[in-house]
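2024-03-11 09:14:02 INFO receiving multi-entity request
2024-03-11 09:14:02 INFO entity count = two
2024-03-11 09:14:03 INFO echoing inputs for audit
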Amino acid sequence: MREKDSHSTAVPAFARRRFMKGIGAAGGAALLAGCGGQEAGDGNGDDDDDGFEAGDTIETTEAELEMIQELAWITNQELPVLPVMEKLAQSFQRTDEWDVPEPDTSDLMYYWPTEWLPRFGDWRAGGDDDTLSLTQWDVPADAQYNPWNLTQYPEAHRGIYDRFMSYNIVEAEYEGYAISDWEFDGDSIELVVRDGLIWHDGDDVTATDVANQVKLDMYGGGTLRSFIDDVSDDVEAIDDDTVRIDFNTTLNTQVVVGTLQPTHLAAKDSVYGEYVERMDEAEDEDEELDAFSDLTQLSIDEPIGCGPFQFEEADSQRVLCSVFDDHPDADEINFDYAEYRYMPDNESRWNALQSGELDGEATLFMPQNQVEQLSDDVQIAEIPRHWGMGLVFNYDDEHMSERAVRHAVAHVIDRELVADNSAAGTGSKLGVTIPSGLTGDFTGRVEDEWLEGVADEFNRYETDEDRAAELLEDAGYSQEDGRWVDEDGEPIEIPVKVPEGFSDWVSGVETLVDQLDEFGFDAAMLTRGNETYFGQDFPEGDFVAAVEGWASFDHTYPYYHYDHIYTGGQGSLQQSGSFPDEFEVEPLHEDVRESEAVDPAEIVDSLATMAQEE
Amino acid sequence: MSRTEAASDFETVSETNLTRSERYRQLVDEFVLAPARIVWHDWRARIAVTIIAFFLFLGTVGVRLVDEPRTNQGDRLVGAFRTLEHPLGTTASGVDILSQVVYATVPMIQMITAGAVFSVVVATVVGTTSGYKGGAVDQGLMTVTDVMLTIPGLPLVIVLAGVTDIGGNPYLIGVLLSINAWAGLARALRSQVLTLRDAEYVEASRIMGVSTPKILTTDIIPNLMPYITMNFVQQARAVIFGSVGLYFLGILPYNRTNWGVMMNDAVSQAGATSSMVAFHWLLMPMLAVIFLSMGLTLFAQSADRLFNPRVRARHAKTVGGDDTDDEVSS
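2024-03-11 09:21:47 INFO inference complete, emitting structure
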C-alpha cells in the first residue's frame, strides 16, 4: 500500500541494509512499509516518451563509461536479477489555492517536491489557506525523529531538517543547501555550512554538527566509510563552518557528492555529540557497535531541527509544524503551517486528494480509474525515479542458479505487459528494454548514452517462448505434459514472493507468474506481509524468486545501482540472493578486465575510485 | 419380509428377517431418502441445499466449464454485465471475475471442510471422552480445553499464520482458522454427555461389558448429532468469514485465487469502494461470500429437523409410524 522510498532516502541506504536484520520485523515494517503500492504517472496512458533528458550533465570519461558498460554487460549476461520495469513517480499538487510550477517543468523535478519547492519559494499559498496539508504513513503521536533509530521516522522530518544539497533529477545537478559550498579535489572534500543556518533552539549550526552527521552515517555502515582509514580522525571540523573529509584514495565525484547530497542534517552536537564521542573513542569494533546500537535505541519525540518548519505538536491524527522565521529561506514561504496527516493507506490518500482535503502528495501511486475522479485543479507531475521492480533469483535454488533457466524466464516474461498491468492504465511504468541494471529508459538514455556503441551486443530478452524452450532443452530440461522438468523428472518450481502491501507489484507479479505458468514452469505468487517480507524473507534469502527494486532509486549515476546489486552487504541483492562472488562472463571491454571470471564488486569499487576529468 | 417357522422356542431369533437388499433399502430410506424428504418439506433447507449444491457444482463442474483466471484475458476493468465473454467483468489486470469467483470456490470448500471437520472431530473426541470417563482424564482434557477457550482466537491465528510456513495450503488454513474453535463445542458436549452417561441404556451397555469407544460411538454420540451438525455448519461459516477477513487484511499468505484476496485487490489496486468503475470487482466476491454463508446458516437452522428422530421416523417409509407426511410440512 505504500511507497518504500517515502522512508528510505531519509535513512542512508547503507544504514538500512546493515541494520535491517537487527531491527527485526517491526522495525523493518516501519522503515519499509510500503514501496511499490503507490507509484505511477499521468492520465493519458502512453506518454512514455515525453520525459526529460535525465542526467545530461553527467560527464563521463571513456574509461569510466567502459566500466559502467562492463557492469551492465555482466548483469545482462549473468542476469542475477531481471529488471522488469522502470517507473515515473506521480506527484500531486493542488492548484486552486496554491501557486506551483507547471507539471512538465524541470522546476518540479526534485526528489520529494513537497520538501524542496516551499523552500525555493516555488510552492506558495495563492488563497486564504495558511496550512499546507500533506500526509504521512506513521502514527504521528508514536513517531520519533532520530534518523538512526530506523523506526517510525515520519515524513515531517523533511521540513524539520535541511538536506546537505539539492539535486534536480532532470538536470542531474547538485546545488548547495545546508552545505552551501564544497570543494572536492579527488582525495578530500571540504564542506562549508550555510551561513545563517540555526537550530530551532537558537544555536548556530556548526561544522561540528555536520561532522557528527557524516561520522554517524559512516559508523552506520555508509558507503564512504570504505574509503576512509579512521573516521574519528579523517572527518574533522577544521573551523566553525568547514568540515574536511580525507579519503584514503582518489574518488569519483559522482560517488562522493551523490552519497552526501541526500543527507538530512539532524546530528545537533548537544543531542548526538555524546554518541559520536563514544564511537570516536571506541577501542574496538564491539565497543563501537555497542555505542551505535545505543544510538539506534534513542527515541526523539520533539526534534530540534534546522529546517524551515519547526515541530509544534503531534497527536493521533497529524503532526503540525510552523514556519521557523529565522531560517534563511523563511521569507520564501508565505503560509504559516505545514501539517502531516496520518493516512496509512493509499485509498484514504486517493479520497483525500479527490475531496480537496490534501494540498499535495510528493509521490503516490494512483490508478487511472481514481485519477479520473480528481478535480481539475489537481495537477500530476511525473518525476523519473530511476527505480523499478526487478525479479531477484536465489542462487541457493538448484534451478534458479542455472543461467539457462534465468535466461529462459527472461524470455518468457513479457515485461511491457507486466509494466502496463502494474501501472493500472496510467502509463507511468515502462518495461525495461535492455535488462542491464541501467536506468533512464523513459528518456532513451540507456541505449543512447550509457550503452552508446555497444547496445547491439546486449541481449534484449525479447519475449520468445521458442527461444526459452531451446535454452532449457540445451540445459538438459525437458517437457512432460506441458510442464518443464529436470533430468530427474522434477518440475521447475518458481514461487515468487511479493510484499502484499505493494499493490502495483502484486499486479505485476500476478502477470508474470501467469506468463511463467502458461509456459510450463510451476510458478506461483506468494504474498507476504510487508513486515515479514522485508524483515525476514528477503534479507534472509528465504525465497526462490522475489521482487525488489533493481536500482538504487533517485540516482542517475549507474554506480549506485551496481553498488545496490553487487556490493551492499547485508540486505543487498547480492546477499539476499546468495549470488556467488565470481561470475563467468566473457569480457566486453578488455581494457577493464581480461579473464572470464569476474567479481563485479571489484569493478564497482574501481568505479568509485575512478578520478574524473575536472 | 419372510417369516420363518421356529423349531423350538430357543431357536427363535427374530420375528422378521431381512434380506440383504432389504436391509440396504432400509438404510437408504433412513439415511438418504428420509432426510431428503425432510429437506423438501422445509423451505429453509430447500434453499440451503440449493445454494450449497450450487457452490459444490461450481467447485467441481464449474471449474471445467470456465477458463482458468489469467491476467490479460480481456480488457482492463470491464464492468459487470457488459460483455458475454466476461459476464461479471474483469479486474484491473484484465482477469475475468467470473472465473476468479468460480476457481476460488475450490480452495474455499477445501478450507471450510477442513476447518469444520477438524473442530468438530476434536471437540467430539475431547468432549465425549472427557464427559464419559470423568476423573483425571476429564480434568486433564478440560484444562487444555479451558486454556484454548481463553486464548483470544484471532490474534492467535494471526501470529500462527506469520510464524508457520503454511504456504497457502487450503486444508492447513482451514485447520489454522479453527485452531481453538473446538474448545467451546467440546465443553458443551461434555455437559451433554454427563447427563447421558447415566441413562439406563448406557448403563445397560456398560454392564454388558461393551467397550468404552463402542458405547461412545453407538450410544452417546448419535444423541449429540444435531448439536454437532449445527456446530459443523456454524464452524464452516466461521471459516469463510475468517479466511475472507484475514485474506482481505493480507495476513494469510496466498498463492491461489480467493474471494478475500479479490476484495483486497479490488480495494488496494483500484479503490473499489470509491470508484464505480471498479465496484463490480469488489461486489462479486462479496456476493459469493454472502450467498454461501447464507446457505450454510439456513442449513444449520434446518439441521435440527434432520436429526430429530421423530421427524425422521415420520418420513421414513420403511420404519413403522402412525403420522402422515402432511403433518411435517407445518
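2024-03-11 09:21:48 INFO post-check: Residues 13-32 of chain A form the longest helix (20 residues).
2024-03-11 09:21:48 INFO post-check: The CA atoms of residues 151 and 525 of chain A lie 29 Å apart.
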